[in-house]
Amino acid sequence: MFDNLDFDVIRRSLPYLFLDGMSFTLMLTGLSALGGLVFGTLIALMRLSSYRLLGRIAGLYVDFMRSLPLVLVIFWFYFLVPYIGQWLTGASRPIRVGAFTSSLVTFIMFEAAYFSEIMRAGIQSISKGQPAAASALGLTYSQSMRYIVLPQAFRNMLPVLLTQTIVLFQDTSLVYVLSIPDFLGAASKVAQRDGRLVEMYLFAAAVYFAISCVASYGVRRLQARIAIVR
Amino acid sequence: MKHRQIIGCLVAGALCTTPAMAQELTGTLKNIKDTGAITLGFRDSSIPFSYLDDNQKPIGYAMDICYKIVDAVKKELKLDKLEVKLNPVTSSTRIPLLANGTIDLECGSTTNNVERQKQIAYTNTHFLTASRYVTKKAAKINSIDELKGKSVVSTAGTTNIKQLTEANAARSLNINIIPAKDHAEAFLMVETDRAVAFVMDDILLASLIAGSKAPADYVISKDAFSKPEPYGIMLRKDDPAFKKVVDAATAALYTGGEGQKIYDKWFTQKIPPKGLNLNVPISAELKNEFAKPSDSPDPDSYK
Amino acid sequence: MNYNWNWHIFFEPNPTGAGTYLDMLVSGLLLTIKTALLAWIIALVFGTIIGILRSLPSKTASWVGFAYVEFFRNMPLLVQLFLWFFVLPELLPRAAGLWMKQLPNAPFWTAAIGVGLFMSARVAVQLAAGIASLPRGQKQAATALGLTTGQGYRYVLLPIAFRIILPPLTSEFLNTIKNTSVAITIGLIELTGQARAMQEFSFQVFEAFTAATVMYLAINIVVVTGMRLLERSLAIPGYIAGK
Q1: Which of A13, B46, B230, C95 is the most buried (most CB within 10 A)?
Q2: Three-state SS at B280
Q3: Which of B96, B165, B176 faces C15 most closely, judged by CB atoms?
Q4: CA distance B22 to chain A (A)
């Protein structure tokens, strides 16, 4: 069963797997989480704003994104982003967008829908007295959001946001469908070139598992600490 | 006074024409000049046309041809430096990614046919190959009809999977067609007995067999799903200026004998990463085509 | 945008010889629904068992539940499908592996089981939380009435816990439907796969993906509406969701 397996193939491809593959995955995860958080917060603010129309648009965006499978969204954006770029810049031809940028835009737009729901819950968890007090002190809406509400909402929701980031980390593996060499893509390229699917996929699974496990353990500890402080 | 007017006219004319000539640069050429970069689309496992070597860098026969095209573009635009970007494509993504500007040239093993020419353009043909299938010798499958009711794999987005789908319907074979992401994945499905056959261009099948763990286990079918069809490097449609440069570059390459040298390097000598020799000398048809380069999608025009 | 729109493409014949491109997409839609339903049944069955294990006082039981959930939650779904599809048959005895690989609908079964187990971990977490949210008196009352632990769960705890977690379960069911699209990577030609195939055959990328998008939205609306009706019909007057 295990006798004709060749685990040396993993050792030989380690530099490629980690320096190219994992760094792509981690960069994509990190930047998408940041971008998703920024956009998500804006969407959450739109949803909670007193302008009905803004709220509806934001709500539609969130519902729309959340009803689509990520694989479909990845295909959509990979083919569409250059045209969006053309439209935004008014260029005469679709602008050239690389694989990384395209994936980044995809994940930011997709994750923003999920992060916005978390941030909305976070903002709603702040008691109404706080923004009221802020405005009584003469703070404008944006000041009160920036200095009073959002920092607390972010803090309260930090464990959930991090958990969502772990999900995002796993989801980035789906860029595999575009043959982009993220960690799993790199592993599958080696696996297929050398006919070593079993070894490479077991290894990839172990790496994802280890990273996600450690990260979610960290989140649980953080959650416990925050809970005590409150 | 008259003289002055004439001189004035000439000067104005000269001033006008220079920028006008620069403005004439349109489409892909303009884009390349503006950004100082050209993007080549490459394949993971189209051996020996476009595939990843041991360092995961794309190499191959079509890649070499593309680099020659890049040189010609650089010369045409009088650029000192032209950055070459590489973007992975699959059979499924190559046409949309070319259309949406992600890549400028697709350097691989793309069959040139009339239907696709409605979407994209091809430069001169660089290979001719027919669609066949590979099976394990042990499976003892001798004709397309014997695939009846079996699982057969092909690569998603290829002409081959389309031909298989059509044959399946026309002959009511009831084949369970599995689409794979790329050729290597599809071949592994046969190697691991998930599918009995893999339908693909025979040259790609031959390379995959040669690179496999037990080449003697496999056999390529005598039956073909198609006549030998041309392969071309794809570029965007409706971009005559760019096509002219690319066509001129490939024509010069093929007629000048350098095309044959590049061919020999990939098909009759040892190639990385495993040092295989495919031993496929140039066919009479391709030799003719090299003498008279053509981008015709019609298989019969190459006879 | 220099793209040739052609909305009539849906009514043109597809290369499979069986109907139009629209028929192709509809067959993909049906396969998506079929796969998702089977996966959801698996997710509910395993999720319930593991959810109960996690809520039991026994240390071993809750550890088993914890390990199960961690195992399925900490690996990308795509990797799990690869493990089931490419790795498992190679590790089995040759005959068993071969049987598995030559199943006529191997991608379908692998997808349903793979997605089902992946989602079962999420169902288990929801259910355990639902059970934990019940007042302790419920369990004690069940015991006082002379119900065994099994009966207590069957007649008292689970019916209420499931009602409480119905809203999150709705979104987990929607996730199950969406997650079946990951099986495109193991050769399952469900809705996203058919949209991609249509793109490859007809070159009309955006029409194909637009149609798939509309179909996914429609499924969503149907499921959300259906679950809302279910929620209403199951509500116990004067209790939790029964307004």
Answers
A1: B46
A2: coil
A3: B165
A4: 16
Looking at residue C242, what is its pLDDT? 44
Nearest CA in chain C to A198: C87
Q: Give the residue from chain A lying closest to C210, CA to CA.
A: A76
Min Cα distance B57 → chain C (Å) is 24
Chain B contact set for A195 (CB, 8 A): 188, 191, 212-213
pLDDT of residue C148: 93
Q: What does the pLDDT profile of chain A (230 residues) look like in tens digits? A: 455 678 888 998 899 999 999 999 999 999 999 999 999 999 999 999 989 999 999 999 999 999 999 999 999 999 999 999 888 988 888 888 889 999 999 999 999 999 999 999 999 999 889 999 999 999 999 999 999 999 999 999 999 999 999 999 999 999 999 999 999 999 999 998 888 899 999 999 999 999 999 999 999 999 888 876 55
Residue type, A201: Y
DSSP structure string for chain A: --TT--THHHHHHHHIIIIIIIHHHHHHHHHHHHHHHHHHHHHHHHHHSS-HHHHHHHHHHHHHHHHS-HHHHHHHHHHHHHHHHHHHHT-SSPPP--HHHHHHHHHHHHHHHHHHHHHHHHHHTS-THHHHHHHHTT--HHHIIIIIIHHHHHHHHHHHHHHHHHHHHHHGGGGGGGT--SHHHHHHHHHHHHT-HHHHHHHHHHHHHHHHHHHHHHHHHHHHHHHHH-
What pLDDT, on the 0 to 100 scale, is given for residue B57? 92
Judge whether B33 is closer than 8 Å to chain A, CB to CB. Answer: no
Q: What is the pLDDT of residues C138-173, one digit of tens each?
A: 989 999 999 999 999 999 999 999 999 999 999 999
In sequence order, the β-bridge partners of residue B105 are B40
Question: Which partners does chain C have (≥3 C-beta pairs < 8 Å)?
Answer: A, B
Please tell me the distance from the alpha carbon of residue C202 to that of residue C204, in angstroms, as a whole number: 5
- Could you tell me if C102 lies within 8 Å of chain A, comparing CB atoms? no
| Contacts with B90 from chain A: Cβ below 8 Å | 178-179
In chain B, the residue whose alpha carbon lies closest to the alpha carbon of C204 is B96
